[in-house]
Amino acid sequence: MIETVTGKIKLEELGNxxxxxxxxxxxxEFQAAFPNWRPRxxxxxxxxxxxxxxxxxxxxxxxxxxxxxxxxRDLELLKEASLRSGVQIIAxxxxxxxxxxxxxxxxxxxxxxxxxxxxxxxxxxxxxxKCAADAxxxxxxxxxxxxxAGAVYRETGMPVYCHTNSWTRSGIEAQQVLAEAxxxxxxxxxGHVCDSNDIGYALKLLEIGCFVSLDRICPHxxxxxxxxxxxxxxxxxxxxxxxxxxxxxxxxxxxxxxxxPHGLDVVHGRIIPEMRQLGVTEEVIGKITTRNxxxxxxx
Length: 299
Ligand SMILES: [Zn+2]
Description:
Blueprint: E1 2-4, E2 7-9, E3 17-25, H1 28-33, H2 40-58, E4 62-65, H3 75-85, E5 88-90, E6 92-94, H4 101-105, H5 108-121, E7 128-132, H6 140-156, E8 160-163, H7 170-180, E9 188-191, H8 199-208, E10 211-214, H9 221-230, E11 237-239, E12 244-247, H10 266-277, H11 282-298
Parallel strand pairs: 3-4, 3-12, 4-5, 6-7, 7-8, 8-9, 9-10, 10-11
Antiparallel strand pairs: 1-2
Helix pairs in contact: 2-3, 5-6, 6-7, 9-10
The protein binds zinc ion.
Zinc ion is lined by residues 20, 22, 66, 242.
């Protein structure tokens, strides 16, 4: 079983899943100080339209929302987006790589205790630990976030999604810290591995036993995926967009132009058709879109 924002489901009910997307990324401190900061209705209308589009056109059943606490995660908003669109949403807990006063000042044990309380007893429960290491590598905030991921993992076995910078190969160091904290490689997804078109970086993480996610929209996504599949890693690849349906500005600005027009439709609308042209079979595509997520949670 797995927790979605609308309650527990069987792993088999996840179906066609995008593993790293965002309904909204937002300044948590502004939202706390100014409750009307977000145009809530507008955010929901935009997100629900995008979710319905991928559900109706590409039979996407589930998205994992990768928004951590420090980017303004809002569980009630995710629940409403899920109920209105019919798309299942898995929420995340955890932290981004930006320096955080809270993460810098609090002991790992206390953070883990609070996060565990929500995971076990919250009215809406997250089922993915989001952490991040970028070009600056293992900063104090990042180290403590990864250690908190480890503390939560040791209690619950919760999978970890780690944002990485593929130009600096930051996932390699992050994986080491996660492993030292007890997180098994086969419970980790390292994200954004495709951005720099450095196939060696993805292969290195795959050789360790991790999952990798090709989840930014680049011209080379299909060829990159096909090469990893040829190397035998079809069972440990995910495709997603890292699309942010809305930012929190008053204008609710649309995201980067490469994700237009709908933002959540590029994987199924362009990348998968290109993979078919490169000879990737329906069976392998089914594995990547539907089966691998079950493997991650079962591992
Ligand atoms: Zn993201």
